[in-house]
From TrEMBL:
One of its GO terms (biological process) is CAAX-box protein maturation. Residues 163-270 form the CAAX prenyl protease 2/Lysostaphin resistance protein A-like domain. Keywords: Hydrolase, Membrane, Protease, Transmembrane, Transmembrane helix. It comes from the Bacteria. The keyword Transferase does not apply. This is Membrane protease YdiL (CAAX protease family).
Length: 279
């Protein structure tokens, strides 16, 4: 959020009540946090509903995405608990950002189909890149993360019992991993580097993006917790996740939270589809 607000070409703050404020272009409106919330709201609801509908036998719901559990643990630390708090927090953060920017409230449904198409277009290069780096493409490339399922998903998706479960996990990973590593981490690190350490804006922005990408890579499971014990395959996975983190960060900065979350989710859906097509 602070990183995006410091960009020289950043869009003007708009106010519905002022006639001199006019909506300009698709590229500007899709950056607004409220439009991201409108765009992602069906995915948020679909994830929560699907987690219950496609739960393994004997369980109330699918295991939470690990990034979602991280948010849940933070809320537990503050004394607040609840399955749906991460989803509520996502909406509240985007709404607070909207209030700070004073953008228009009006939904623009015509944007959302184009945003979905753009997200699919942006997901395709990353999927192709994953194929180039790994054989088969599902090996070490799925960024879907759930407690207890991460190693299986990262090494062949064995933990996903059906394509429906895979799609639900993909949606959750897209939203919550981008919320944690792009929206929250980039904002906090940028604030630390810029406001606390007083680094130049370009250093703060670059540092925030690089640190978020490295943390995103380390978030994924490896055979060893210690990098000095990694083999070439492990280092290749780390390189892929870091580059993917940089790619997602660039999309976040230039195209906004809604599109980067959907891009991440659609990339994971492509991995899931490839896996179940080949099984």
């Amino acid at each position: 959020m602070p990183l995006m607000e410091t960009r020289g070409h950043q869009r003007k703050r708009l106010d519905d009540k002022s006639p001199r404020h006019q909506v300009t272009s698709y590229w500007e409106r899709t950056l607004w946090p409220l439009q991201s919330l409108y765009f992602l709201l069906p995915l948020l609801l679909g994830y929560e509903l699907g987690a219950v509908m496609f739960a393994p036998e004997g369980d109330e719901r699918l295991p939470q995405i690990y990034a979602e559990r991280m948010l849940g643990r933070f809320f537990e630390w503050t004394g607040v608990t609840g399955y749906y708090l991460p989803g509520i927090a996502t909406a509240v953060i985007l709404l607070c950002w909207h209030f700070a920017r004073r953008d228009p409230w009006k939904p623009e449904p015509r944007l959302y189909l184009v945003m979905l198409i753009e997200s699919a277009i942006l997901a395709a290069p990353l999927f192709i890149f994953s194929i180039m780096m790994t054989r088969p493409p599902t090996e070490a490339t799925a960024m879907v993360g759930a407690a207890g399922w991460l190693p299986m998903l990262a090494s062949g998706l064995d933990g996903v019992e059906s394509w429906r479960q895979g799609v639900i996990f993909s949606i959750g990973a897209g939203i919550y991993e981008e919320l944690v590593f792009r929206l929250i981490v980039i904002a906090l690190v940028h604030m630390l580097l810029s406001d606390v350490l007083a680094l130049p804006k370009s250093w703060s922005a670059g540092g925030a993006i690089a640190i978020s990408a490295i943390l995103f890579a380390l978030y994924h499971p490896f055979d060893s917790h210690y990098p000095w014990q990694w083999d070439s395959l492990e280092w290749g996975r780390f390189a892929f996740y870091t580059l993917a983190g940089l790619y997602f960060a660039a999309i976040y900065v230039y195209r906004g939270f809604g599109i980067v979350a959907a891009t991440h989710a659609l990339y994971d859906v492509m991995v899931i589809a490839t896996h179940f097509r080949n099984t």
